[in-house]
Amino acid sequence: MESAIDHHLTCPRTISRRVPDDYQPPFPMWVGRADTVVEQVTMAYFGVQYLDDDLRPSALATLRDMVGRLHFDDGPDHHDLTEHTDNAGHHNLMVVGYWRDPAAFCRWLRSPAVADWWNSDERLTDGLGYFREITTPRVDQFETLYAFQDSLPGVGAVMDGISGDINEHGYWGSMRERFPASQTDWMQPAGDLRIVAGDPQAGGRVVVAGHDNIAIIRSGQDWRDAEADERALYLDEIRPTLLAGMDFLRDNGDTVGCYSNRFVQSIDLDGNSLDETYNIGHWRSLEKLERWAESHPTHLRIFTTFFRVAAGLEKLRLYHEVSVSDAANQVFEYINCHPGSGMMRDAQVLSAPTPTA
Amino acid sequence: MESAIDHHLTCPRTISRRVPDDYQPPFPMWVGRADTVVEQVTMAYFGVQYLDDDLRPSALATLRDMVGRLHFDDGPDHHDLTEHTDNAGHHNLMVVGYWRDPAAFCRWLRSPAVADWWNSDERLTDGLGYFREITTPRVDQFETLYAFQDSLPGVGAVMDGISGDINEHGYWGSMRERFPASQTDWMQPAGDLRIVAGDPQAGGRVVVAGHDNIAIIRSGQDWRDAEADERALYLDEIRPTLLAGMDFLRDNGDTVGCYSNRFVQSIDLDGNSLDETYNIGHWRSLEKLERWAESHPTHLRIFTTFFRVAAGLEKLRLYHEVSVSDAANQVFEYINCHPGSGMMRDAQVLSAPTPTA
Question: For chain A, what is the mean pLDDT?
Fold first, then answer.
């Protein structure tokens, strides 16, 4: 049994845990481990948005083009592809890239092949919407949790290994306690989302400024290798409840502090569905996420089901990763997306928005 | 908004809360307040046990006799009556008395009218079983929580008033945080239950020694004044789930750290049912109670229902009180009760039990 907080990230606590020192979790779970050289990671969600089904081939071609650019110098160490229908009925294709070196990410983002493409006027006129939502948490600002130990997805894919059984899971509050920062920091939000360039209602280019400690959760389900019993467990028992909860957050998230919630379907480069889904949720704070997760009937039902089956899972892969980040390490940019997209929906419009080119 | 921890019980924390300072509960709730002169309270459960229905009149007469003795000098400041069928199908009548002055309780317990009755050989031969389970927590060792503000039941009846809206509720961990002791003490158990006199299998008199920080929860439901809608809410929606959870703890409590669990029906002196019930549960520790409450489907379902309706409750009175106590302030004694009764079930039998008279 070891702590979810890696040795080199341990520090004298000013905030205590909520469970006694001899707490024993009811079943084993694991977290990702990164070498000490890893100090910060970049998680970058790039999206293509369209409303009319006729635009799907064009959107998929654009996604493939974006994926091609990931393979340029300083591209991400890992990426995956998804699609989803959003809170306004628009379709969205996304590629998420993970970098274990934010400097490499910066070089990549600023490279002409990437920057020129994003800044091109063609992006305004080619009939598709685009967005990029990028955060770069320090290693004390994110945590992971896996019910398996191999081939870690998401940020785990750019880490260096897996822990032994960890202590901090199986109780409400354990998510927070897996963050190294939680030893001394409440990770409270400061400020509000603000539109700092553009006008969401008018379309075109919009930039949203975030704020400290926006929390992002990626919570995934992979049944690609599952046998019939675990496929049924996920598809028939877990998924309907999960969808109800995720639909609630997609459509009513503003009532509970959830800025954006996308339940996404993993796809291949041709847009074919894989047996893998995940949810990507942006929250005002870790606390808002905790309050919802601990009290919403859908999430509690999933939680009790997971408790019941966790010890026996074989091929059904369930996991999550949660991060917070400094406002300075956040990018939320939109081109011709509907005004309810991503961080735009809940962002405050300044009295005199700055027009952008 | 005020803290559940009364001013005079506040001290510098060595253990932090689990929620940020600006936490706001989702609806109002209240706690009991006692004058500063109250330092410790006694909660004494006195029971009469019988198996054969024919013994009910005799058991009721004995209960009435016991209630009569409560009115002697130094008797309790408040009491109530209940009945329940236990984990072995035996019937039990109980009277619980609350004293706001443990010295008065001691004088009462040692008074000839009480002591002689308990010690009489007639108790061994009159065909009924008897038990007394008594704890005397200090005021930093118990907490209360009410969804109403008047005529407090249980320990609240021997307190002096009600708080304003309190902060520490609506999240997992808030029960612990309402204990003044939680500011500096994990309230961890030490030792095990032990049979220190008698032999539960043989019947007769048995004494069980407790251990530090046994946790006791009384969780109540009073629909005596409720209108039709709230009666239906309780009887049709809450109660079936509640019973499933309480039956689980009664029959399988040993698997989760629950020593004893009795879901009891309030009665009058003639044994007629009132529209009031409560559960009285004894746990190895507050932590074991927390883990069960936070993860068992039945309790989570009740919790979400309560969250949904709490703000609108009018006449349906829901509440709880939870205490821990020092081993030195615990009494667990049984006469001719079946060996699964109360603290006997999970008590370790010493190799050479001391016979009692």
Answer: 95
- Tens-digit pLDDT profile for residues B154-202: 999 999 999 999 999 999 999 999 999 999 999 999 999 999 999 999 9
3-state secondary structure of B332: strand
Q: Is residue A118 part of a domain?
A: yes
Cα–Cα separations (whole angstroms), residue A104 to A69, A165, B178: 14, 32, 49
Question: Which residues neighbour B185 within 8 Å (Cβ) at sequence distance 6 or greater?
Answer: B15
**Both tokens assigned to A194:** 């603000």
A146 inside domain: yes
Alpha carbon of B310: minimum distance to chain A alpha carbons (Å): 13
Q: Answer whether A303 sits within 8 Å of B287, measured CB to CB.
A: no
CB contact under 8 A, A304 and B287: no
Which residue of A18, A172, A186 is in closest CB contact with B20?
Answer: A186
- Asked if B131 and B47 touch (Cβ cutoff 8 Å), the reply is yes
Which range of residues forms the domain containing residue A99?
26-357
Contact B297 A304 (CB under 8 A): yes
pTM of the model: 0.92
Q: Evaluate whether ipTM surpasses 0.90.
A: no
The answer to whether residue A16 is domain-embedded is no
Count of pairs with CB atoms under 8 A, one residue in A, one in B: 63
* Any domain includes A3: no
Burial class (CB in 10 A: 0-12, 13-18, 19+), A65: exposed
Distance from CA of A19 to the nearest CA of B (A): 8
Rounded to 5 degrees, what are φ and ψ at A307? Answer: -55, -40
Tell me how many domains chain A contains.
1
Chain A hits for B287, CB-CB cut-off 8 Å, are 19-20, 23
| Residue A206 and residue A333 in contact, taking contact as beta carbons nearer than 8 Å | yes
Which tokens in the block code for residue B273? 């049912």
A224, A231 Cβ separation under 8 angstroms: no
